[in-house]
Design a protein that fits this description.
The complex is a heterotrimer of chains A (487), B (284) and C (227). Chain A has a domain at 1-160. Chain A has helices at residues 11-39, 53-85, 93-118, 132-154, 163-182, 188-192, 206-241, 248-262, 277-289, 291-304, 309-314, 316-339, 341-347, 352-381, 388-421, 433-438, 441-470; strands at 185-187, 200-202. Helices cover 72% and strands 1% of the residues of chain A. With 487 residues, chain A is mainly α. Chain A starts with 10 loop residues before the first helix and ends in a 17-residue tail after the last helix. Chain B is mainly alpha-helical and 284 residues long. Chain B has eleven helices and two strands, in the order H-H-H-H-H-H-H-H-H-H-E-E-H. Chain C has helices spanning 2-5, 9-28, 32-35, 47-58, 73-79, 114-122, 124-127, 146-160, 181-199, 202-209, 215-225. In chain C, 55% of the residues are buried. The chains are: A mainly alpha (487), B mainly alpha (284), C mainly alpha (227). The structure holds protoporphyrin IX containing FE (HEM) (2 copies), calcium ion (2 copies) and copper (II) ion.
């Protein structure tokens, strides 16, 4: 089965794995912090203006999306790519150099992002806050990644592209298109010859800007939090379990269905706004249709595990991945339901949205990246996973964290939405705005605790990874399937 | 609170329930297959890094649902959703119209209790951010509405500056509150005289005899001998009457404390009367 | 066909690109021109307000505040008239926000005032007990970056034809003058002094009198203009 002649080179994959852990801890540490800030506002002032909620929130979203998640995506690409194409990075000095340059430029960019966000450089557009010089850096390493993908494909031994590759390719193309259009901005210094050189102004104004932004924003979710994560699960779950993918047909329909439908759904972020009614409706309709191609991948994965209850019980990595599929199903049903006009009328602007966001990101994105990296670690270092028990504990702790997170935010969001609308017996608004804020205190606290659980889990993960790298029992031969782990 | 009478609330709760029930229900079904089913099918020839693929068909339920949503989508887009007949602003206008019809018939003749209750609601939502939940004006940040009307410094300031001209707000002789008498001129009194009148007025038209006398000569011509404003020719200085509240809400007001924004068009007549009633109740 | 695509990465990529690209066109292009039209009476931000808007952006107020009043009675009662498309014609970027941890601000200029904002931004709980909004004290000492705001105004004027130095409503007078930086700055200082005085904070008044505009003053000017 394995081709023993090929020595895969995991240098770049390892580097990106380290970053995924690092940015996971930083990004989610900030997440926990801002979660508690909403419950205990004194925390805003711990480090002067640098810890104000509004300064840290964009830092959180950028660190988890562009730090943690992208690192995870790149780490797995530099691993999976070689293996399913049956070529080693070591075979091409050029591709090796591209990979390394990609890594370093990316690393520098994320560090610059942290510094500039903390020092108030932001364009304010969600998930596109970074100012133009950083955008340029992003474009450069994105192109490098593209070269790496198509370069490796160019020298492949495996004629047919495996499912995961479809999704990596789509990620590359989708983000490239979206990022370019949404970040069109004019640096003001070069027009006026004065002012801050970093400052720029958006090419689009008002409603148009909103439309381009959410065409981007929604599909950033698609092509960062969904498509590449599906790429991962299609490799790591069958690989770890040794089970063939349940249905090629289902993969095919889900992939093309997802590609076609996703892009139309961005309008659901703009319901009851000033964009034309027909566009909002289109967003709702396509969002509902989107349930099926989304669930298709998740069901395909669950069915791949058909009859494998034993593995699910025994292997924590399988647990992570099966639960990831489940959370993926939850959030891809939740999203479409929130896209229905009357539901959105209540849910939009409330905490129900962050609730939706995090059962997707923590349960699906986070769990999948954690599992992928722990699957790779023994193969990177030719050692067992240091502690199965620790991994198991991490799983349960983090699962509890997610449940606390989303259940508290569901309740908070729905409560808040209903209170904003509520009228007294005279027909007047029943609550002043501040009433709708103070009532959330217990839920904000619970969410913080949930986040803290998840965050502690990250340290277990980091420790387990580190010990696997340095101290776990060595293994002679790479395991074909199930990852070996010590008790 | 009658939350379930709102169809948006109903649908949202229904939605939340649907998310949980469907997700748990469907996963349950597939978990059962993981537990009890058996992996089988015809393998494709290809194999990637040890991973094979079955040629199984897509699950029937899934395929039917996919086709179903697509048909629904087409139907909804071309037939179900009235592409040119629906507008969210139209929907809003209807909502407001229906509300107003209901409101007006229901509160055509409100009792004092109704007004108090309604006024309290409006006050807490619209006014409390500045005047405080208890109406005391948050330590001098806005008018204290619990003590009868106006304090000595304010009266003094009005006597010195007149009413209309504080800051550089130009009122073109209208007076900022829009009373028939227009503007109150500055400098009607000064020095000890002004202080005496201020004390008298602020004290509820009591005490200070000198003030009482001066008031009658300098102020009564507009504000009336008893200070109630001569049937709305000038502001009532004794009590927050409906007319004063309505005037302040319509025009806003700049004084030594600060600026009170105008609420023009944001409250109905009944609501204005209601806050006035509520505010009067604060000083009782 | 699909298995052929899976063996031909180039065509596969082209296929994916086509499938994902055309939705964007259908979504965005048809109403693009119509939506950039300002409502009657809409005017671009003057220099001070633009600078204030940049402060709002720099401190990411949009993380907690929306600027989009939806057409529901519950929202128009709370915040005023629902938002109109053409009101945003000069908003680059748009600031609708996606989460209302705090209230909508699209018309906050109608029902809050300079002194209230100054008190509130200095210490929110002192005016709204139970508030979870942070205080923004650094804005009371930081100087507003007028140069950058001016550069932005010049840029939008040149590149996007935003009508600075023009008679917009046809009454024969220039509506939003910009002029040279010195002229614009002088006008901004005058405006700023008014706002500073309204806040009743001597430190702010003094700072403006010395020729520097504190960020908070620019921000309040911007908030007051949201109507
Ligand atoms: C320990 C884990 C985490 C905690 C405690 C946490 C906490 C938070 C908090 C408090 C917010 C702000 C919500 C608000 O404004 O009300 C937020 C927003 C957000 N977080 Fe997290 N987060 C965590 C992990 C993650 C991860 C792993 C991701 C992505 C991979 C993520 C993505 C986001 C996004 C996209 C938003 C913006 C949501 C929106 O705009 O509606 N978070 N998070
Ligand atoms: C079928 C798939 C999905 C649909 C139709 C969908 C729909 C939605 C809707 C309606 C909103 C709320 C917009 C609003 O009212 O503000 C939203 C927000 C969001 N969703 Fe989803 N969702 C889907 C899947 C996912 C997944 C899988 C993730 C992440 C893993 C995700 C991440 C987010 C994020 C980060 C936001 C917040 C955007 C923002 O306001 O900043 N979504 N989604
Ligand atoms: Ca940018
Ligand atoms: Ca958001
Ligand atoms: Cu979306």
């Amino acid at each position: 089965m394995q081709n023993p002649a090929i020595e895969y080179d995991y240098t770049v994959a390892k580097w990106f794995s380290y970053l995924a852990i690092l940015f996971g801890i930083i990004g989610m540490g900030v997440g926990v912090w801002i979660a508690f800030e909403l419950a205990f506002p004194e925390l805003n002032y711990v480090a002067g203006e640098y810890t104000l909620f509004s300064r840290l929130r964009p830092l959180h979203t950028n660190a988890v999306a562009f730090g943690f998640t992208l690192s995870g995506i790149f780490a797995t690409w530099y691993y999976v790519g070689q293996r399913v194409l049956k070529v080693s990075m070591a075979e091409s000095k050029f591709l090796m150099a591209v990979g390394k340059l990609h890594f370093w430029l990316y690393f520098i960019t994320i560090l610059l992002a942290v510094v500039t966000l903390l020092t108030r450089y932001t364009t304010s557009k969600e998930y596109a806050q970074l100012e133009w010089p950083i955008d340029i850096l992003v474009v450069i390493w994105w192109v490098l990644w593209g070269i790496s993908i198509f370069g490796l494909i160019g020298i492949r031994r495996e004629k047919t592209l495996y499912i995961s590759l479809w999704y990596y390719i789509a990620t590359f193309l989708g983000v490239a298109m979206l990022y370019l259009f949404n970040n069109m901005e004019v640096p003001t210094y070069f027009v006026a010859g004065m002012g801050d050189i970093m400052h720029s102004v958006s090419m689009y104004a008002g409603t148009n800007d909103a439309m381009v932004q959410w065409w981007y924003g929604h599909n950033a979710v698609a092509f960062v939090f969904t498509v590449p994560i599906i790429a991962m699960i299609y490799y790591y779950l069958p690989k770890e379990s040794g089970q063939p993918v349940y249905s090629y047909k289902l993969s095919l329909l889900s992939f093309w269905g997802l590609m076609f439908v996703y892009l139309w759904a961005g309008g659901h972020h703009l319901i009851y706004s000033t964009v034309p009614d027909w566009m909002q409706t289109m967003g709702s309709v396509f969002s509902v249709i989107l349930i099926l191609p989304s669930w298709g991948s998740a069901l395909n994965m669950l069915l791949t595990m058909k009859g494998e209850w034993g593995q699910l019980k025994e292997n924590p990595l399988i647990k992570f991945m099966v639960l990831a599929s489940t959370f993926y199903m939850l959030s891809t049903l939740e999203g479409p339901i929130q896209s229905i006009k009357s539901v959105n009328a209540l849910a939009h602007f409330t905490d129900w949205i962050p609730g939706h966001v995090h059962d997707g990101t923590l349960g699906w994105v986070g769990f999948m990246i954690i599992a992928a990296i722990m699957h790779m670690a023994p193969r990177f270092y030719k050692r067992e996973i240091y502690s199965k028990k620790l991994l198991e504990m991490q799983f349960w702790l983090q699962t509890t964290g997610i449940v606390l997170y989303f259940s508290s935010m569901w309740i908070a969001g729905i409560t808040q939405g209903m209170m904003w609308r509520a009228v007294d017996q005279y027909g007047n608004l029943a609550y002043s705005f501040i009433d709708t804020v103070t009532v959330l205190h217990p839920y904000y606290t619970l969410r913080g605790i949930g986040g803290l659980f998840y965050f502690i889990g990250l340290f277990m993960w980091a420790y387990n990874f580190y010990k696997t790298m340095t101290a776990a029992k060595q293994i002679e031969k790479e395991p074909a399937f199930a990852t070996p782990m010590a008790g | 609170m009658n939350w379930l009478s709102d169809n948006v609330n109903q649908l949202a709760l229904l939605g939340a329930a649907a998310i949980l029930i469907l997700t748990i229900g469907v996963t349950w079904k597939y978990f059962k297959q993981i537990k009890e089913g058996k992996s089988e099918g015809e393998l494709k020839e290809e194999n990637w890094d040890g991973i094979g693929e079955y040629k199984n068909n897509s699950p029937v339920g899934w395929s039917l649902a996919f086709i179903g949503t697509m048909i629904w989508g087409i139907w909804y887009w071309f037939f179900g959703y009235p592409l040119d007949a629906y507008s969210q602003i139209g929907e809003y206008n209807e909502e407001v119209k229906a509300y107003q019809a209901r409101f007006e018939s229901k509160w055509a003749n409100p009792t004092k209790e109704d007004l108090l209750g309604m006024g309290e609601g409006v006050y807490l939502v619209q006014c409390s951010p500045c005047h405080g939940i208890d109406g005391t004006g948050i330590e001098g940040k806005a008018q204290d509405l619990t003590k009868r009307f106006i304090n000595k410094e304010q009266v003094l300031s009005v006597i010195e500056h007149g009413s209309a001209a504080l800051g550089d707000k130009v009122m073109d002789g209208q007076g900022q509150l829009g009373y028939p008498m227009g503007e109150m001129p500055p400098g009607l009194l000064s020095g000890a005289d002004a202080v005496a009148v201020a004390e008298y007025v602020a004290n509820g038209f009591k005490g200070n005899d000198k003030g009482a006398e001066l008031y009658q000569s300098a102020c009564a011509s507009c504000h009336g001998p008893d200070g109630t404003g001569m049937d709305g020719m000038a502001p009532n200085l004794k009590e927050y009457d409906d007319k004063l509240i309505a005037a302040v809400l319509e025009h806003g007001k700049v004084g030594i404390i600060g600026t009170m924004p105008s609420f023009k068009g944001r409250l109905t007549k009944v609501q204005e009367k209601a806050v006035a009633t509520y505010i009067r109740s604060l000083s009782e | 066909m699909f298995s052929w695509l899976e063996k031909n990465p180039f065509f596969f990529a082209v296929g994916v690109f086509i499938v994902i690209a055309f939705a964007g066109l259908v979504e965005i292009v048809p109403d693009f021109a119509q939506q950039s039209r300002p409502v009657a009476g809409a005017k671009p931000y003057d220099l001070l307000k633009l600078a204030g808007r940049n402060v709002y952006i720099k401190d990411s107020c949009n993380a907690c505040h929306s600027q989009l009043i939806r057409p529901f009675k519950s929202e128009t009662d709370r915040y005023g008239m629902y938002s109109l498309n053409g009101e945003y014609a000069y908003d680059r970027p748009f600031l609708w926000g996606s989460k209302r941890t705090g209230p909508d601000l699209h018309r906050v200029g109608n029902y809050r005032t300079s002194d209230w904002h100054a008190n509130h931004m200095w210490d929110p709980i002192s005016v709204v007990p139970g508030s979870i909004m942070p205080a923004y004290k650094h804005m009371f000492t930081n100087e507003t970056d007028l140069e950058t705001a001016y550069a932005e105004a010049v840029t939008v004027k040149k590149v996007f034809n935003v009508p600075y130095d023009k008679d917009i409503d046809g009454d024969g007078k220039i509506d939003v003058p910009l002029g040279s930086f010195e002229e614009a700055k002088e006008r901004a200082l005058k405006e700023a002094l008014k706002v500073a005085e309204e806040t009743k904070r001597e430190d702010l008044v003094q700072m403006v009198k010395s020729g520097k505009i504190p960020e908070i003053v620019a921000l309040i000017a911007y908030l007051n203009g949201l109507k």
